[in-house]
Automatic annotation (TrEMBL):
Signal peptide: none annotated. Gene3D superfamilies: Endonuclease/exonuclease/phosphatase. This is Endonuclease/exonuclease/phosphatase domain-containing protein. Residues 45-148 form the Endonuclease/exonuclease/phosphatase domain. It holds the Pfam family Exo_endo_phos_2. GO terms for molecular function: catalytic activity.
Length: 301
């Protein structure tokens, strides 16, 4: 079963099949049944967000801070960050989406300024860039070959967007190669000693007659002893965790500082609003200036 989202009911079946074959040359399609499904519960309305979809999305991403998440769709949002110079100003949905990027740590994956939406209304052509792709930091460096492909489904108003995800992504930083698994700086050696002696006594390894055992039996005892030591360490010492994370090649300390400042101001505004208080004009202006500066620096990088 193959799922394709964002396709109009009026799209000819031949176009859909040809597009699937184009993306999957080795796939053999002998029988197919095309079904269209629309889930209004998760739609983002053109003018308002009555279903609170953006907040729901924000809460989900914040609750999964280390997950690799891709968010793609028609957001009906105009903003200078992705407008390719087409939008002299941003609409409310665009500002809301940029706020979501800041609070949920989302990166814009769109590349270039190719139109994603093209139609003719009342004899006048209309076009825009409203189909957007975002990802969280763990996935951002793994997305490649992002491309708008207007000719893939010629009958649709929204041009098809394709991209690839690399399963393995070499990091721009050198990971920690240390073989030490435990943090022993503030170790409780008395607890470790008691755990180790207790486990060895319960294993009955010390009752073994080492003068009359085979090499295979000796290897087995070594493996059991190693497991006992590891178990005692795990119960007595905290395990080291790697702090290494992959970052985009253009990312630097300056952008990280702007991002942190933008997130801090956003959280202050969010808490103030949720408390039914009105944020001060100075706070709103400071947040807007910081956010615009952050977006400008990202484009420059």
């Amino acid at each position: 079963m193959i799922h394709i989202k964002g396709i109009s009911k009026n799209t000819p079946a031949e176009e859909i099949i040809n597009a699937i074959k184009d993306q999957n040359p080795s796939l053999k399609l002998e029988k197919f049944n095309i079904k269209f499904k629309r889930n209004n519960r998760n739609d983002i309305e053109p003018e308002t967000d009555n279903n609170d979809t953006l907040n729901t999305l924000e809460n989900f991403i914040i609750q999964h801070p280390h997950a690799s998440i891709a968010v793609c769709g028609d957001f009906n949002a105009w903003h200078t960050l992705w407008g390719g110079g087409r939008y002299p100003r941003s609409n409310r949905r665009g500002h809301d989406l940029v706020d979501l990027m800041s609070s949920a740590d989302l990166h814009l994956c769109n590349v270039g300024n190719t139109l994603t939406f093209e139609t003719i209304t009342h004899g006048r052509p209309r076009s825009s860039i409203i189909d957007l792709s975002f990802s969280t930091t763990p996935l951002f460096n793994k997305i490649t070959h992002w491309e708008v492909r207007p000719n893939l489904f010629p009958s649709t108003q929204h041009n098809i967007i394709t991209y690839k995800i690399k399963l393995q992504n070499p990091s721009t930083a050198t990971p920690n190669q240390s073989t030490f698994l435990y943090r022993t700086k503030n170790a409780n050696w008395h607890t470790f000693k008691e755990n180790l002696l207790s486990k060895i006594a319960n294993s009955q390894i010390l009752d073994t007659n080492f003068l009359n055992i085979s090499p295979t039996e000796l290897d087995s005892i070594v493996e059991r002893t190693t497991r006992i030591i590891n178990d005692a360490c795990t119960e007595s010492f905290p395990v080291k965790t790697s702090k290494h994370t992959s970052k985009a090649p253009f990312w630097d300390d300056h952008l990280e500082h702007l991002k942190t400042k933008c997130n801090q101001l956003h959280r202050i505004l969010y808490r103030t609003t949720r408390s039914n208080n009105t944020p001060s004009p100075d706070l709103i202006e400071q947040y807007r200036d910081t956010k615009e500066n952050y977006a400008s620096e990202i484009r420059r990088a």
